[in-house]
Specification:
The protein is built from one helix and 21 strands. It is mostly beta strands. GO terms for molecular function: transferase activity.
Length: 186
């Protein structure tokens, strides 16, 4: 469902994107080319900052927002998801937040007030808040990364993890084409 927020902003969705009919996009949301937004995802840009302003939630080209993902932002802050990025099932991205290109965010992961560098992989059930994750980092499942975390202990992305991330992104781009083809069938 595409709907306005209380200030009248309406999502802008590229024609080539596929939005599952059960997903909700509300407000100042920008969805790029060939994006897949899965069932029951909620992307909501509706909270204003102290001056009445609102930054957008931007989903980059060829990215996928999987089933049950929630993307929202506190006080009108910007959320940006890079190109060719996968946000896996039931994750929460709460802005302000910037996720770089070709990033994989695993199931049930929570990102808040952070930057995740390009090519990084954050595995399942992790929390990343109040920090900057450099490019190409690998954060294992169930990690808790925050401003006081010593990132020198974190590994860089392996070829296997990078290959997995690319495979997930490719699979979801193929889903966009398939769902776009049948979207008007009963």
């Amino acid at each position: 469902m595409i709907r306005k927020n209380p200030t009248g902003h309406l999502p802008v969705v590229a024609e080539s994107a596929f939005i599952d009919p059960t997903a909700i996009l509300c407000g100042k949301v920008q969805v790029g080319e060939n994006v897949f937004i899965g069932p029951y995802a909620v992307i909501r840009a509706d909270e204003l900052d102290a001056d009445g302003g609102l930054e957008p939630i931007v989903i980059g080209d060829n990215s996928n927002i999987q089933d049950g993902v929630v993307i929202h932002s506190k006080s009108g802050a910007r959320v940006e998801i890079g190109e060719h990025t996968s946000i896996a099932h039931r994750s929460i991205i709460h802005g302000p937040c910037h996720v770089g290109h070709r990033v994989f965010i695993g199931f049930n992961t929570v990102l808040f007030n952070c930057t995740v560098g390009a090519g990084s992989v954050i595995r399942h059930n992790s929390v990343v808040e109040d920090c900057q994750v450099p490019e190409g980092f690998y954060i294992p499942s169930t990690s808790n990364i925050h401003s006081a975390t010593d990132l020198s202990r974190i590994e860089t992305v392996t070829a296997d993890a990078s290959s997995f991330s690319e495979d997930v992104a490719l699979t979801n781009r193929q889903l966009v084409a398939g769902y776009k083809r049948i979207q008007n069938e009963l």
